[in-house]
Each structure stands twice: as C-alpha cells, then as structure tokens.
Amino acid sequence: MKISFATLKNEFKRVLLKLSFTDEKAELCADIFAANSLDGVYSHGLNRFPFFVDYVKEKLIDIHAEPELIEKNGLTEIWDGHLGPGMYNATKAMDRAIGLAKSNGIGCVAMRNTNHWMRGGTYGWQAADAGCIGICFTNTTANMPPWGGKEPRLGNNPIVIAIPRDKGHIVLDMAMSQFSYGKLQENEINKKELSVSGGYDEDGNLTNNPSAIIQSRRALPIGFWKGSGLSFILDVLLTAVTGGQSTAQISSNMKESGVSQFFLSFHQDNFHHQLIEEIIQYTKSSAPAESGGRISYPGENTLATRHINELNGISVNTAIWSEVLKM
Amino acid sequence: MKISFATLKNEFKRVLLKLSFTDEKAELCADIFAANSLDGVYSHGLNRFPFFVDYVKEKLIDIHAEPELIEKNGLTEIWDGHLGPGMYNATKAMDRAIGLAKSNGIGCVAMRNTNHWMRGGTYGWQAADAGCIGICFTNTTANMPPWGGKEPRLGNNPIVIAIPRDKGHIVLDMAMSQFSYGKLQENEINKKELSVSGGYDEDGNLTNNPSAIIQSRRALPIGFWKGSGLSFILDVLLTAVTGGQSTAQISSNMKESGVSQFFLSFHQDNFHHQLIEEIIQYTKSSAPAESGGRISYPGENTLATRHINELNGISVNTAIWSEVLKM
Q1: Chain B, 20-79: which have a CB under 8 Å from a chain A CB?
Q2: Is a pLDDT exceeding 90 seen at residue A182?
C-alpha cells in the first residue's frame, strides 16, 4: 500500500494535535516522521510513530517542554532539553548551531535531558540544506557489549556528518553497531541470514544468524574493538561536555529517555565544490567488486529513494497505518 | 634490545640536526618519534624514522617551512602547512586549536599541504595534557577500496578523539581500515592469521590471511559499508574546508605528501569528571567475553605500556636501531 507524503504527514499531525501538541511542535514532528518514511527510513518513520505516541502518553516525553540555554563556554552552548520531544529539541539545537556557524564560522550546541531524535540524518540534511556542514551524535541506552565483554554496556550512539552539495548533499548517518536490533528482527522475521557477521552466538562464535545474536545480546560494534572504542568515547564526550546522562545512567531505566546530544556546524562561503565532485568521481572510478555493481556516496541512495517515493508514494505497513488512522 | 627514551630521542635529534633541522624542530620531531616508541607504537616511532629521513632527503618534506594562517572563517582558521614536517605542523595546529578553545570554548584549525603526522594519537594526548578535549583527523593516500569496489580509492584516514582525565586521559586513535598494511605485513612475516577478517582475497572472499589481502589490495574498512562511508566523508570534509588535496589527488603521486588535516578542541572549566569515572566503571562491569579477560578504555593500554617502557626501556628493532646510529 502506498501513501503520499502529505497524507502521511497530515495524519501524524492530526494525532499529535489530539495529544495536545502545539501547532508548531505537531507540524515539525509530523514533518520529520513523514520525511523519514519518504527517505526510506521506515523504521524511524511510520513504523516508529506508535512507540512515540506511547512515550508521550507515558509522559516520558514532555510535550510542553522547551529547550533552555543553561551554560555558555565561549561559543559552545549547553542546553537542557527538559525531556521535550527529541525531534523538536534536535531541530532547535541544530538550527542554533547553524546560526552560530553563520556568524562565527563554527557553532556548537550540546544538549542534555533530551529524547530520541528518531533518524539522526534528519539534522544532517537540515544543516546541509542551510549550506552548512553538520555533525551530530547522540548517546543511547546500552545495546552492545564493549570489546572484551559479553554484556551490553555501550550504546550504538549514531553519528551523522553532512556536507552541503548542489547535486545532492553528502550525508553519512551511522550507528556504531554493525546492525540495529530493528534490522536483526526484520531478518529474523524474514528468515534471512545477515550479509556479514552481526554479532556472537551464545558460544562466542561470530554469526550471521540474527536470532542467535538477539538471544546472546552480543551485537557487534563496527570494526570490533574500533567501534567499541568510538561508541565509548562519544558517550564520554557527550557526558563530559553536557553533564547529562551517560549510557550508564540511561540504561538504568527500562525505557530510553533523557539522552545527551551534540550538534556542530561549520559555515564558509566556499566549500570547494569542484574538489568534492572530484572525490566522488575518483571513488566511483574503482572497478566494482561484483559485475554490474555500483559504488555510491553516503546520502546518494537516500535521495534516490526520496525521489521515487515522491513520485510513486510511500510504501506503508498496512497494520501500522491502520493503527495510526484509528488513533 | 632495550633503549631508554632519552637515548632514543637524543639519537633522533642528532640525526635531524645533521639534516639541518632547526633546534626547535629537531627537538619536537625527535621527542614525538621517541614518545611513539615509548607508548608502544613502534610502527610510527623508531621503525618509521628511516622513512622520514628519506622523505627529508628527497625534499618531499620541507624542513624550513613554517605553517601559515591563510584564511579565517570566523573562529575557524585555515592554515597552509607548506609541506613542512607533519609532526611539527600538527603540533602547532593543535596548539593553536587549544589556544582558541581556551579563549572561546571551541577552537578549530584546518590545515592543507601538510605531511604525515606519524601517530595521530600524539595530538590527542597533547590536547588532553592541556586540559582540553581534542579531535583530529587526516586524509591519506588511497589504501582501501570503497564499499562495492575492489580497487583502492579511500584513505584509511585516522581519527583521534581525546578526553582529559586525571587518572589517565581517554584517547581513541583509529584508522578506518580494520588493519593497517603495517599490521598485515607484520602478520605475514610472522606467518600469523589475523584475529578477524581483514579484507578480501582475489576471489572476493573474506579472509584472515594477511598475504591474500596484500595481494588483492582489498583491505577491509571497519564495519564494511560504514567505515567506507566514514573514510569518504572525512576526506570530503577536509577538502571542503581546506581546499587542499583530497585522497584522489594525494594518490596521484607515488609517495604520500601534501595531506589535509583537521584539529578541533573544546575547553570548559568542568568536564564532569565524576560522570566519566561512572562510565568507565559501568563499561568494565560487563562479564568478560573470555574467562579472565578484561575490558579496557581507549588509551588505557597505551599508558600502561608507557609506564612499563619508562621503567624497563623501550624494545627496539636492532637492525633499524643500528641504521639510525650510523646516520
């Protein structure tokens, strides 16, 4: 079943207004949920919407909260998200970082006590749309063992890096786990092996079997010890700067709430566009690993999906769509 | 054979002075080479020194060059390294970023036309020693295929993140390849399989065999498509900001020279030290993957090696050490 972006967004907005969101917040959050589905990130679009609504109903998200500037270290600003909607807070934070970058070349906003931002890439596209480089990352609840351990102690702590580009922004949006639990579950349901090892089984052997990883809770960080170290240090950085909750503290609650996030932006008149095109051409000039294969840059496939979904409508899970229609 | 830090450093300095380095540059470069060996990073300490000397003799490194501020975008500074010694330029750049951070909370120096900085971690420790958070990364010559390709088009582009800490800084220093070519060669010589897959063989199968990867030139990025994307976008970011050479351009020369680097620093009075200790304790509280195993934070093993080498002397490759003594 296919639905237009406008229909999807209007439905989300209707539900959020019914939950007493202000028009501004309902508009912004509905737009982001619909855009995530439009860009093919269904896991953080329609499919996540019912969970978001539950969080609002359980008051883990305070829909009335406004983010607040609580400290300035020179140009670096520390904000408190007061447990407001994560997408709203993150948009405001990146907007502020962009504003600072346009005045000062660089802008940095670190935020504590905020909530899940859904797709991190959203705020990368936001910066790039404003003509700025954007970098952001978040901590999360523990969902991955540290290297050398077998119990979850690290978040998958996604990081986003975005570079503005006329022919389509370059946007990397990646978590520190090789596969998300959402992806593991999807493969489990479809009885499909993972394309590469995604974790360890109960016996400590690397496996492509999603069920074995879900059972052992030993999802693999990207690059083994390397992703483990990167996930760890992003959490330390966030906590050191914001004084907010670390993965350790977030994980002490059953449901993820009150995370810490970082928003960095750079602006300059000339981002040397021609040199960026040369990098893309050079990278794509490698012989493909498999006959007929192609090499893409980060963000390229997202943009292609967006265009296809704009033309043909967005595929929706009919059960979840019906659920939202009844809300 | 074991040598003291002082002996190693004095010998390096003697050679550099003989090559007409100024006393300041000889002192700084000798100190960094010796400190790299002291910290157990022998590949970028003594073992690399003869290559550095060759680069100087071939005039790929201009020992008389001084880095120059060429552009300011607000607080972000663009410097030209004028092909000076990479370690000297990088130390100056991080020093400047630290200075800016101490005045403004954040400091950013982007540098083009510089040279190999040897161990990236050096500049992370430098920032942390100054009480600052330090982030830096560099591009390199192409040594890894992009995801979906089989010919090298990406650098391994190391990134460093350092957080100051009284009981020992937290310093992550990681390249985007699962293993460096140095490590592959070391395992090949010792006829040792890699601990995890490090690349593809000529038939396109993942392999732990270092020789097969050296032959195919298909070293693996960390996390497959993820490390490929991260390596790519770091190069784009560096090139977009500095206008310097990208991996594409660096790779057009046989020898790596004229790379681009980024130095970012944050300073604030209170980095919430107690919360950082909580993260370390929480991470280490995971049951070990293997009986008797231990979990370490990034930088922990470096510091332990440093202390052992300070006490017992630094292990040197006798052939390389003899070579240096004869220089």
Answers
A1: 72-76
A2: no
In this predicted structure, the answer to whether residue B166 has a pLDDT above a threshold of 90 is yes
Q: What percent of chain A has pLDDT over 90?
A: 96
Q: Does domain A178-220 have CATH number 3.40.640.10?
A: no
Q: Strand pairing partners for B133?
A: B266
Contact A146 B72 (CB under 8 A): no
| A and B: number of Cβ contacts within 8 A | 264
Alpha helix ranges (H) inside chain B: 5-18, 23-38, 49-57, 86-104, 121-129, 181-189, 210-216, 225-242, 247-250, 273-284, 300-312, 318-325
Q: Please indicate whether, in this complex, the C-beta atoms of A293 and B148 are within 8 angstroms of each other.
A: yes
Question: Distance between CA B63 and CA B81 in Å, rounded?
Answer: 11
Q: Among B153, B163, B234, select the one facing A285 at the smallest CB separation.
A: B153
Q: Which of B143, B286, B296 to mutate to test the interface with A (most CBs of A within 10 A)?
A: B286
- Across the range A292-296, mean pLDDT stands at 95
Reported in sequence order, the residue ranges of chain A that DSSP labels E, i.e. its strands, are 2-3, 68-73, 76-80, 106-114, 133-138, 159-163, 170-174, 199-200, 206-207, 259-266, 314-315
* ipTM exceeding cut-off 0.90 for this assembly: yes
Six-digit token pair at A224? 């083994």
CB burial readout A108-124, b (16+ within 10 A) else e: bbbbbbbbbbbbbbbbb
Compute the average pLDDT of residues A179-208. Answer: 93
pLDDT in tens, B91-138: 999 999 999 999 999 999 999 999 999 999 999 999 999 999 999 999
- Chain A positions touching B208 (Cβ under 8 A) are none
- Could you give the CA distance from residue B55 to residue B62 in angstroms, rounded to a whole number? 9
B288 vs A148: CB contact, 8 Å cut-off?
A: yes
pTM of the model: 0.98
Mean pLDDT, residues A151-172:
97
Class in CATH terms, A69-175+223-271: alpha beta
Distance, in angstroms, between A70 CA and closest chain B CA? Answer: 14
The residue of chain B nearest to residue A277, with distances taken between CA atoms, is: B236
Q: Count the Cβ atoms, other than its own, within 10 Å of residue B293.
A: 12
A272 belongs to the catalytic site: no
Q: Rounded CA gap, B204 and B146, in Å?
A: 14
Which of A77, A103, A106, A245 to probe the B interface (max B CBs under 10 A)? A106
Task: Specify whether the CB–CB gap between A238 and A250 falls below 8 A.
Answer: no
pLDDT band at B181, cuts 50/70/90?
confident
- In whole angstroms, how far apart are CA B163 and each of A104, A248, B172, B291? 25, 18, 9, 30
Residue A163 pairs with which residues in a beta bridge? A170
Residue of A223, A249, A272 with shortest CB distance to B223 = A223
Mean pLDDT of A33-46: 96
B321 to chain A, any CB pair closer than 8 A? The answer is no
Please report the pLDDT score of residue A36 as a whole number: 97
Residue ranges of chain A that CATH labels 1.10.1530.10 = 1-58+299-327
Task: Write out chain B residues lying below 8 Å of A288, CB-based.
Answer: 148-150
Has residue B30 got a pLDDT over 90?
A: yes
Q: A279 to chain B: nearest residue by CA?
A: B248
Decide which of 1.10.357.10, 3.30.870.10, 1.10.1530.10, 1.10.287.110 is the CATH code for A1-58+299-327. 1.10.1530.10
